[in-house]
Amino acid sequence: MFLLDFFKKKDFKKVLSLDGGGVRALAAVIFLKQLEKETGKSVFDIFDFFMGVSAGGLNALHFTINKTSAEKLEDFWVNDNLAMSMQKSFWGQAIFLNSKPKYNNESKTALLKDYFENKLIAHSDKPVSVLSYDVEKRKPRLISSYDDSNISVISAINATSAAPLYYPTVKIEDGSWLIDGGVVANNPSLIGYNEARNYFKTSNIKVFSIGTGLNSKGLDGKSSAEWGPIGWLRNDILGILSETQYDHETLSDLLNDDYFRVNSSMKEINFSIDDYSYKNLEEIKKMGLFWWSEFGDRAIKFLNLN
């Protein structure tokens, strides 16, 4: 069966995979906005399967549950919404010095309610999956439209984006306690490929993956030998733990020309996942536009949209 699929090039199923990265996930939205403008097609119509983790999972569910255009989704990533989704807990100002998460989930849930109401992830008209991690079972957990009929969209978003230290662990409808899937794979492309392969029962899969920027700044090895928890946290230990390069190289070797990755160094962007200052958001938008200038033409060709 897979051999026959190999010859049916026009029948490729296209996977959109979206990395986690907090506010930097806005860059993917800007890139996809340009893709929609150039092709006249919506993100929902271009792709057959959607995979995301953390903020990338939030974007994936906007695209699938509400069929939100990338242009409209940009409006979600405004300062007021981000401020509401990051309401500090009482001790939030001293995040790394106390036992409580930096932010609460109540205000974020209220914000998501405005966009998703009481919808279930199963309401998606196309297959979508977001990655999380089950802390009790100590194993990755996928929440998907095709396997989880009773999980709300809001629960799925809160779970996939419950970054340790930043947000509290989330209990979803089936009783599972989940945290951000970025602790497993911040680039969920390989997982998305495997899920789509099983869902569509074909190996004729193309994976289009969008990152959230790479922190290419090297660390001082000698100084790092003296760092404790605060020192490592100030020097992006969470980013180091969620590096995506190995997943990228694995899928590149596996799929060759059927895998396309959009990403670059962050340049002037703050690596912190929660810096929603006007200056930082503008730099993130610039990165998305830079990606379009670098990858746009090849992306259109890869997706057979020209």
Give me a quick take on this structure.
By secondary structure, this protein is an alpha/beta fold. The chain is 42% helix and 13% strand.
Strand runs, count: 8
Return the structural class.
Answer: alpha/beta
| Spans of at least 5 consecutive residues with low confidence | none
What series of H and E elements makes up the topology? HEHHEHHHHEEHEEHEHHHHEH
Rounded mean pLDDT is 88
Distance between the termini: 29 Å
**Hey, roughly how much beta strand do the residues contain?**
5-15%
The biggest beta sheet reads: 8 strands, mixed
Share in helix: 40-55%
Q: How large, in whole angstroms, is the Cα Rg?
A: 19 Å
Global shape: globular
Number of helices: 14
Question: How would you explain this protein's 3D organization?
Answer:
- The chain is globular.
- The model has no long low-confidence stretch (mean pLDDT 88).
- 42% of the residues lie in helices and 13% in strands.
- Strands 1, 2, 3, 4, 5, 6, 7 and 8 form an eight-stranded mixed β-sheet that branches.
- A hairpin with a 4-residue loop joins strand 3 (128-134) and strand 4.
- The protein is built from 14 helices and eight strands.
- The chain is of the alpha/beta class and 306 residues long.
- It has helices spanning 2-6, 26-39, 43-46, 55-65, 70-74, 79-85, 106-116, 153-160, 189-200, 221-224, 229-234, 237-241, 245-255, 278-302, and strands spanning 13-18, 49-53, 128-134, 139-144, 170-171, 177-180, 205-210, 259-262.
